[in-house]
Amino acid sequence: xxxxxxxxxxxxxxxxxxxxxxxxxxxxxxxxxxxxxxxxxxxxxxxxxxxxxxxxxxxxxxxxxxxxxxxxxxxxxxxxxxxxxxxxxxxxxxxxxxxxxxxxxxxxxxxxxxxxxxxxxxxxxxxxxxxxxxxxxxxxxxxxxxxxxxxxxxxxxxxxxxxxxxxxxxxxxxxxxxxxxxxxxxxxxxxxxxxxxxxxxxxxxxxxxxxxxxxxxxxxxxxxxxxxxxxxxxxxxxxxxxxxxxxxxxxxxxxxxxxxxxxxxxxxxxxxxxxxxxxxxxxxxxxxxxxxxxxxxxxxxxxxxxxxxxxxxxxxxxxxxxxxxxxxxxxxxxxxxxxx
Amino acid sequence: xxxxxxxxxxxxxxxxxxxxxxxxxxxxxxxxxxxxxxxxxxxxxxxxxxxxxxxxxxxxxxxxxxxxxxxxxxxxxxxxxxxxxxxxxxxxxxxxxxxxxxxxxxxxxxxxxxxxxxxxxxxxxxxxxxxxxxxxxxxxxxxxxxxxxxxxxxxxxxxxxxxxxxxxxxxxxxxxxxxxxxxxxxxxxxxxxxxxxxxxxxxxxxxxxxxxxxxxxxxxxxxxxxxxxxxxxxxxxxxxxxxxxxxxxxxxxxxxxxxxxxxxxxxxxxxxxxxxxxxxxxxxxxxxxxxxxxxxxxxxxxxxxxxxxxxxxxxxxxxxxxxxxxxxxxxxxxxxxxxx
DNA sequence: TCATAAATTGTTATCGGTAACAAACAAAAG
DNA sequence: CTTTTGTTTGTTACCGATAACAATTTATGA
Lengths: 340, 340
Fold this sequence. Notes:
homodimer; 45% helix; 3 domains; 434 Repressor (Amino-terminal Domain); six-stranded parallel sheet; Rossmann fold; DNA-binding; elongated; alpha/beta
């Protein structure tokens, strides 16, 4: 492995001078600089980041903790993060919690041992506050992504779950639906709470009753057809006047599970029942726009989130909290139909 | 930041003893070990990976270079990689080249400066061989993923593009299609070459003629509706007896672009024209299985690829080359129709 | 009981950079 | 042609961990 010492010897200068050239210090004689740069090129030297970080106390590495990169919503976020990070000279360590707080703890350990400069994280639940504390104790900046957690003081980038839900539910009501069931995410996730609030308040604002039976929960995860089917069976077995004519799915995965289950139960969307959800269902949207959704600007979430994080990292003391709430965009498509 | 020196002082031993406890060395008195472990827990010590890597010459970090994490095919690969890597105690640095070899060079630099132990890479083109050389010069192991490159000697995990193409084309022929157009990926990517070969040979084996006009190229990238539309316009303007009744799209993105363009041109799939492609189109498949595809075990690609890489990393000298070729699975669905 | 082997712990140097200070050299001023 | 100041380069110590060796303690056997 070639080091500054090799370069130094090759260029007949001291290692320190090499270091100065690498870091574009002032006060280097032009001829010396050229000599060193030639040596660097000829020997193919690339600085050792580990050694650097040891003195500089920064690794130029950031952690990105998501629930599942396989969800297009998160892969887009990851993409946004990656692009901005690289642009600003940072590397990105990535990991998937699967909404599992034990995994989350392990990944936080990993991030701490890597001494990342900051972590951008989609917390699994309110319990994640402990992990935030731990990171901060290790002097690692934290920005939350997609969700907040109780008691968190700091920067975050989230979508407006309340607003999006309100708009979707209102859309259903405008389409003549009165019996709207909510299949929500886990109540210990802030987005689920906000979506529940949006759902309940919008119903109330429209003078509609909320049946206890209309509320159920699934994980925000992939492939839960089994549980989804049970929920739907239960919903569909309600008396005719209480049987839901529309379903609000709290995210894209839940919506896909729901529609699959509905089909298996012999119902078709939107003819028999309408479905709306949060987050775009890709790449279906490019190919055959079907889902009525509250689309969130996922790439933008990533870009903004990592930007905030980098700002925090680069000016530690930094001032006021940056809490960005990006509004969703409602797309009315084929999964909802007017009740006649 | 708490270091072994802090632990040492707190536990009244030498730093070296602390190091020994951390690394589970033998010959530590039980009482000493407990004392140190208690100190570690109480002070919340986590080893500094950078410092470690300086002496050990390994970072326990691996690089994953993909073309675009936004493509579900690659996000699944990334997921497989991540899972196995973490399981084996490695971190993963991730990056997206967008099939751009300049970006690729930058990311390779990044990986070298991070002194990753190995890189798992989807090469952008045959030119990537230079980058492989560079990595190796820096003593970094390389495993190729999804594609090979000319002149490469080493491990790789790829799909059987030839076989998959053959089966898809044969399926089209069995369905009565004689005029099958190929919209391929870039010829400097091995999968595209193999798919072209599979296409041409299967046609020949069936005594079908190949029209020059049937061959065209797109990037393996997202959102190329413009170019796709041009290609399709040209194809559809051929005389009736030469006008394709089926299209072989070299990957999922190309297929989606093609179908979108076809629709804009007033044609529907499969009624007017059949379409097949490589790689699953998710999550459509869960929701409404539509595409006839050669599905590749993406997660498995990732898992196997990173496993090979880790093996190489952990026993440098290692023996014979591991060249894994995983067969695709053909799913015949609704995007193809029998010609009557 | 004392020498010797085995187990346990400590010291020093090092990995590849850089900060802080010191030295050498060149240019400007008297 | 000195002196002074400013430029440029070099030395030393350190970041946090560990390998290699040294020292100390404990156990074993004659």
